[in-house]
Every structure is written in structure tokens, then in C-alpha cells.
Amino acid sequence: MDQHEILLKLENIEKRFPGVVALKSISLEVRAGEVQVLLGENGAGKSTLMKILAGEHAPTGGEIVVGGRKVSALTPTLATELGIGLVHQELSLVPALSVAENILIGRMPRNAFGRINWGKAYEDARRALEALGVSIDPTAEVRTLEVAEQQLIEITRVLERGPRILLLDEPTSAVSDNERSRLFDVIRRLKQRGHGIIYISHHLSEIPMIADRVTVLRDGLVVETLPADEADEATVIRLMVGRRLEEQFPKETVELGAPVLAVENLASGRTLKDLSFTLRRGEILGIYGLMGAGQAEIANALFGLQAVKTGSIEVGGKRADFRHSSDAIAAGLGLISRDRRQSLVPMQPVGPNLSLSWLSGKSLLSRLDLTREREEGSRYISDLRIRPASTTHKLFFFSGGNQQKVILARWMSSGARILIFDEPTRGIDVGAKAEVFAVMSRLVSEGASILMISSELNELIGMADRVLVMRSGRLSAELPREEISQQNLLRYAS
Ligand SMILES: Nc1ncnc2c1ncn2[C@@H]1O[C@H](COP(=O)(O)OP(=O)(O)O)[C@@H](O)[C@H]1O
Ligand SMILES: [Mg+2]
Predict the structure, then answer these.
(1) In what order do the strands lie in the sheet with 418-422?
(2) Are 109 and 117 in contact (CB under 8 A)?
(3) What is the per-residue pLDDT across 132-186, written as a single tens digit (0 to 9) for each?
(4) Residue 348 is part of a domain; what is its CATH number?
(5) Do both 268 and 176 map to the same domain?
(6) Quick check: is 1 in a domain?
(7) Does residue 43 have its Cβ closer than 6 Å to ligand 1?
């Protein structure tokens, strides 16, 4: 085996989505027998690049050389044929099917009459799982399993196909240390057999455990590829985050007032175990954690979307364990959720998208306030510079940044005093980000309070008065403004 054989080569790969350039120009190569760790802040383009290699997205520019072929795009079938296997960041299992069916999907063993040989299927699946040191019942339905187990099944499914080039997109975000070390054993074995591996991680501590080389992406570009022994944490963080913080973050100093929200010993959902904090009037309180640390569940619990198991939430001194989002809205909360599609009515223009927040809990008659819709629609369009500046275009045709402004406008018009921003800049470009930050700054200077859940280090450093760092469903640190740094955030989160 030639250790330096190049299995895969990317040349100037570009990927544009409507309104966002996810990858500007990516060139890299994967060699036989190497583990290349791919790093980058959220939104740097890592997952998009992996989906291009798996044939799920077509690049809008550049070339891919793999298996002696030069192509401008792969299809999922071609990628599989060429030996490329992707373990997705978001699980791609079919919840209603069994573990065995998920692992062997499309390749279930059949008997001479073409019927599925279930005995063999379960046995094959059991063996595949065992190779990872995992014991999960192959007959169980995937939907009944924990996230960590599902993640292991996803990994097993891809490994089962024996890919020559294995792509792992944050595969250890939910699994235990023990399962992770099993996975690393498997990766090392594949490496010795001459497979090439791209491993995406947010856990910088994994670099010395597994990496041969490290490639850092930032804003859709490769910043640098370096040997693992030169990739110490300080170097890597500097490469990931880049230049000094510029004027991207127009945060003004605001005098903080009395507590408006108090959370005590809150447990909710799968991960959130024991969380206490208060949010003050005029404050932007940041929440940071690695994927799955529980930060996403805070928003759901506060907004009445997910039950509170134990502990309490108080809004303005009153008990507020909301059962429905309408109760939360009535108490003056607003949620800008990480998935805009959940919050918008895409086939309607701006006006009706604003009025959603006034309507909850009111009678049908009061719903038809068309004049107010029209007036507020026009006001916010000019106030927040929403483009296109149209009260008639459906939101479907707006860019991500402009959709986000419409959601902001909704909560401004409803008079919400406590705003939960869950990944507020996901999928929007740099210009729109700065505008969203400007609105956040204005809202707090007018007396609102913001809980800013973000995985973007820069944004927290630029905007937050204080940051709570989460690890495994618990608070691991509370950083006052002067201590909010990349190093501290990453250190306490991992
Ligand atoms: N299907 C999509 N449509 C529009 N924008 C997308 C899509 N997928 C990713 N993006 C955007 O592309 C950029 C890169 O995202 P992603 O590849 O997921 O980054 P990473 O995995 O490094 O966090 C982000 O701005 C993201 O919002
Ligand atoms: Mg990703």
C-alpha cells in the first residue's frame, strides 16, 4: 500500500445556496492511511463539504478527483460506488424501522425465493454492531433508542459498507467516552488498512488522540492544513476564529436592571439536568455549549414547548412553567428559533407573519386586524430594512437574513420583553448578521432582555454581557463580560 496515495482531491470547490455562499473555494486532499481532522466554527462549511462528497449537494464550481475520475459533481450512487461513506451530523435513520433494517438498508439479505431472510439480517446487524463494541438489540425500532445509540447505528451502517473514504461529521457529539474510544479503535484499524478518513469534531482535545493532519475552514475557505503535532489548541483556535473582532458587533453598554427571569434547578428533556440562572432587564445573557450540551433545550423548556421535569421558572416574579407557547407569548416571551421554517408561514407576506404573535390565545374575531398588519408590515420593512421591501411578496422568496428580520419584527410588534434567540444568525450572511446584532443591541437598550443561545464564539464575545457555559446538561461556568474569550468558552465547554 502506498501511504501517500491520494484517494480524493478537491479543487476550488464552491457551493452557493440562495443568499449564502457556503463554500467559496475549497482545495484539499485525502491520503490513504490518514485521519484528517476538519475544524471550523459553526457555519464554516464543514457539513456542506461532506454532503458534496457524499453526492447529496452538487457544487456550483470546482472539481473532484476520486477513484481516477475527475467530476464536477457526484451523485449518492456514484459516491457509494467510489467507496465514499458519510456519517451525517444530523441522524439520517428511519425511526419506524428496526436497527437491522437501518444498518442494512437497501441490502437486506434474501433467501432463494426473494424473501427477506430476517434471521440472517438480525445476525448480520448484530455482528456489525459488535465490531464497534456495541450491544443494541437489532430487532428494536430505532425510534425507541437514545440519541447516542442512534448515532452508533448511523456509524455502523456506514462502516458496514466498508468505505475506502470515510467521512465522519461530528460523530461523537452524543456518545460516551467509552463508545468514543471504540470508534477511535475502528478508525485506527481502517487507517492501517489504507483507508482515508475525514473526521469533523468540535472537541479540540480529540486532535492528539486521532489526527494525522488538521485542516481548518473559515467562512467557506481553507485557512490552513497542518500536521497534527503542530495543531495545538491555541494555534487551532486562532485559525478557526481568525482576525480580531471587527465592528461586526455594535453592542452598546446598557445599564442592567432587576431580574426579569429566574430559573432554578431546571431539568427538562433528555439532557438538561440542573440549571439555575437569572436574566436581568437590559441584559444579553449568552449560553454556550458544544452540540447536545443541553443549551437547545433551554429555549424549548422556557417557551412551553417541552415539559419541565423538576425545578422552576419565574417570569417577573411569577411562576411560569408554561404548558403552551401561547402562555409564554402572553407572558411577554418571544422565541427566535434555530429553525426558521418552524416559525414562518412561507406562503404569506410580511403582515400575517407579524400578526401570528398577537393572535395566540385571542378569539377568532380579534384575529382579523388587517389594517394593523398592513401598517406594522410597512413600518418594520422600512425600520429593519427588510428586502424586498414588499408587503405582498411571500416570505418564501426572501433570503434567510430577511426572513430572520421578519421574525424579529414579529416579536418587536408583539411587545415581547424577554427574547430567546436560539442560534440567531444560522444560515444568514455576514451583512445580515451585523443588522441582526444591531437590532439586538437596540432592543436591550429599550429595556428588553435577551437570552442568546449561540455556538458562534465570536458572536458571544461581541454581544453578551455574561455567558453561561453548558456541559452535559449542566452549567460548567458563568463568565462575566471581561472573561468571555474563545479559550474560556472552549475550555469550559469541552
Ligand atoms: N441547505 C442549505 N440551504 C441554505 N444554506 C445552507 C444550507 N446548508 C448550509 N447552509 C449554510 O451554509 C453555511 C455553512 O453551513 P454548514 O456547512 O452546515 O457549516 P458547518 O457544518 O461548518 O457548521 C452556513 O451559512 C449555513 O447556514
Ligand atoms: Mg456541521
Answers:
(1) 318-319, 308-315, 259-268, 272-280, 474-480, 466-471, 284-289, 449-453, 418-422, 333-336
(2) yes
(3) 888 899 999 999 988 778 888 999 999 998 899 999 998 887 777 777 888 898 8
(4) 3.40.50.300
(5) no
(6) no
(7) yes
Which ligand places an atom closest to the C-alpha of 88?
2
Q: Which residue has the cell 476550488?
A: 12
Cα–Cα dist 384/405, whole Å: 7
Q: What is the pLDDT of residue 321?
A: 85
Q: For ligand 1, pick from 16, 48, 433 the residue to mutate: most ligand atoms within 8 Å of CB.
A: 48
Domain ranges, residue 350: 259-493
Whether 249 is in a domain gets the answer no
Do 316 and 223 belong together in one domain? no
Residues 325/304, Cβ–Cβ less than 8 Å: yes
Q: Tell me: pLDDT of 74 over 80.
A: yes
Q: How far is the CA of 431 from the centre of ligand 2 (A)?
A: 21
- Residue 246 domain-assigned (yes or no): no
Q: Would you tell me how many other CB atoms lie within 10 Å of the CB of residue 418?
A: 24
281 and 234 in one domain? no
Question: What is the Cα–Cα distance from 120 to 92, expressed in whole angstroms?
Answer: 24
> Quick check: is 272 in a domain?
yes
CA of 339 to the centre of ligand 2 (A): 14
Check if 42 has its Cβ closer than 6 Å to any atom of ligand 1.
yes
Q: pLDDT of 102-118, one tens digit each?
A: 999 888 999 888 899 99
Which of 209, 241, 273 finishes a domain?
241
